[in-house]
């Protein structure tokens, strides 16, 4: 069974942990509840959790997954992601990157394959390091900044109290979308996610 590499983008350390920019890593923390073990340091420059994601109907082990949080800052995520792809022999069709998305309303979720980076420096770095844009993405909407706030400042702020009230549900739904992708494939996972969220 092929291994899936699921990367949650963010910045390292407790200072950034609650930032909007770190929502990808927050989704990984939800998924990690279903993978035995704990995150450990990997030589590629990330912390990883390698195991089976839950169980399939009938009790068989779920798909093998490597959950990965790059230890680098967001805008240089490419090097650790490329290193992990080489180490685990993962092709772009088995790489999922979970990231914040300014161009989607808050709590909106979208699954896609390939495309541009939309100004997201983490995605730019990954595409450049891989020499390929055809990997999978789970976009987690955080909305646009209010008024004239600089988007760079907005993504590096913690979720507001109003946003946090809905954040837990969004993270659980994002984790479900990942589970669907790994078990039933992109098209069916997109249909399930986008129909439920229409």
UniProtKB/TrEMBL annotation:
Residues the record marks as active site: 21 (proton acceptor)
Binding annotation for tRNA: 16, 73, 75, 121
Gene Ontology cellular component annotations, sorted alphabetically: cytoplasm
Location relative to the cell: Cytoplasm
PROSITE patterns referenced in this protein's UniProt entry, alphabetically: PEPT_TRNA_HYDROL_1 (PS01195), PEPT_TRNA_HYDROL_2 (PS01196)
Catalytic activity line of the entry: an N-acyl-L-alpha-aminoacyl-tRNA + H2O = an N-acyl-L-amino acid + a tRNA + H(+)
Enzyme Commission number, as recorded: 3.1.1.29
Keyword Protease: no
Record-level Gene Ontology MF annotations: peptidyl-tRNA hydrolase activity; tRNA binding
Keyword Protein biosynthesis on entry: no
Signal peptide region: none
Cited SUPFAM superfamilies: Peptidyl-tRNA hydrolase-like
GO biological process: protein quality control for misfolded or incompletely synthesized proteins; rescue of stalled ribosome
Keywords assigned: Cytoplasm, Hydrolase, RNA-binding, tRNA-binding
Pfam families per UniProt: Pept_tRNA_hydro (PF01195)
Record-annotated site: Stabilizes the basic form of H active site to accept a proton: 100
Site for Discriminates between blocked and unblocked aminoacyl-tRNA, residues: 11
Functional description taken from the UniProt entry: Hydrolyzes ribosome-free peptidyl-tRNAs (with 1 or more amino acids incorporated), which drop off the ribosome during protein synthesis, or as a result of ribosome stalling.
Family under the similarity heading: Belongs to the PTH family.
Subunit (UniProt): Monomer.
Protein name as it appears in the record: Peptidyl-tRNA hydrolase
């Amino acid at each position: 069974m092929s291994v899936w590499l699921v990367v949650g983008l963010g910045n390292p350390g407790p200072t950034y942990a609650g930032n909007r920019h770190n929502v990808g890593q927050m989704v990984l923390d939800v998924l990690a509840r279903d993978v035995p073990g704990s995150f450990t340091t990997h030589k590629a420059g990330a912390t990883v959790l390698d195991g089976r994601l839950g169980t399939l109907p009938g009790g068989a082990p779920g798909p093998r997954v490597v959950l990965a949080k790059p230890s680098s800052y967001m805008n240089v995520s490419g090097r650790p992601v490329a290193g992990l792809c080489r180490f685990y022999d993962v092709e772009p069709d088995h790489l999922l990157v979970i990231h914040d998305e300014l161009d989607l309303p808050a709590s909106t979720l979208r699954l896609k394959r390939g495309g541009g980076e939309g100004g997201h420096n983490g995605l730019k770095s990954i595409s450049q390091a891989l020499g390929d844009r055809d990997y999978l993405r789970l976009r987690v909407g955080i909305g646009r900044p209010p008024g004239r706030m600089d988007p760079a400042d907005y993504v590096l702020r913690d979720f507001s109290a109003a946003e946090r009230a809905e954040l837990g549900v969004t993270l659980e739904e994002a984790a479900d979308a990942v589970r669907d992708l790994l078990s039933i494939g992109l098209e069916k996972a997109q249909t399930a996610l986008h129909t439920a969220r229409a």
